[in-house]
């Protein structure tokens, strides 16, 4: 059985060579920690916060994230689709999530605030009622994605095919409407 670690702050730790002890972390804060290219697989994080951390290309296979906040962190290339998706609950503020994989996940109501999501893959996701607040979605992939009532109104570089996604009630600004017509290679003048 995993050890339970409660209310602990981990500051400035480097877990790139030595892995974080396998445990159930509850209400813990990880600040300025480096997990890049390391191993966080089979861990449990409940009500934890990652602040100014680097988790790029970290192995998160079968990891549980429930009520976990990421802020000012690098999460490039993470495969969230390999996590334990049961009760998954994440929030992202000012994070770099480029090349991250969210395929096949239920992310209803997911909030992405001021995030860089270049080439992130949202194929076959349920992003209904999600909000991309001031996010850069350059070359992000939306394919067979549920985008019902998803708010893209302040997002930039939105490009997706309305015929290949469910979009009833999705919200766009006039500035990002051209990304819905990109496949037709037409010019839109302002």
TrEMBL record:
<protein>
    <recommendedName>
        <fullName>Pentapeptide repeat protein</fullName>
    </recommendedName>
</protein>
<dbReference type="Pfam" id="PF13599">
    <property type="entry name" value="Pentapeptide_4"/>
</dbReference>
<dbReference type="InterPro" id="IPR001646">
    <property type="entry name" value="5peptide_repeat"/>
</dbReference>
<dbReference type="InterPro" id="IPR052949">
    <property type="entry name" value="PA_immunity-related"/>
</dbReference>
<dbReference type="Pfam" id="PF00805">
    <property type="entry name" value="Pentapeptide"/>
</dbReference>
């Amino acid at each position: 059985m995993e050890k339970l670690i409660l209310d602990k702050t981990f500051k400035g730790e480097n877990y790139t060579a030595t892995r974080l002890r396998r445990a159930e972390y509850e209400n813990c804060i990880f600040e300025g920690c480096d997990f890049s290219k390391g191993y966080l697989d089979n861990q449990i994080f409940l009500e934890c916060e990652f602040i100014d951390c680097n988790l790029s290309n970290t192995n998160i296979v079968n990891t549980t994230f429930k009520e976990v906040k990421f802020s000012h962190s690098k999460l490039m290339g993470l495969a969230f689709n390999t996590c334990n998706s049961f009760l998954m609950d994440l929030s992202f503020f000012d994070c770099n999530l480029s090349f991250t994989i969210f395929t096949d996940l239920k992310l209803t109501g997911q909030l992405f605030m001021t995030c860089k999501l270049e080439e992130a893959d949202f194929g076959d996701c349920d992003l209904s009622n999600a909000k991309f607040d001031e996010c850069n979605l350059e070359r992000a992939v939306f394919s067979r994605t549920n985008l019902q009532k998803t708010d893209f109104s302040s997002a930039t570089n939105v490009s997706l095919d309305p015929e290949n996604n469910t979009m009833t009630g999705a919200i766009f600004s006039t500035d990002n409407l051209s990304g819905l017509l990109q496949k037709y290679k037409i010019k839109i003048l302002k």
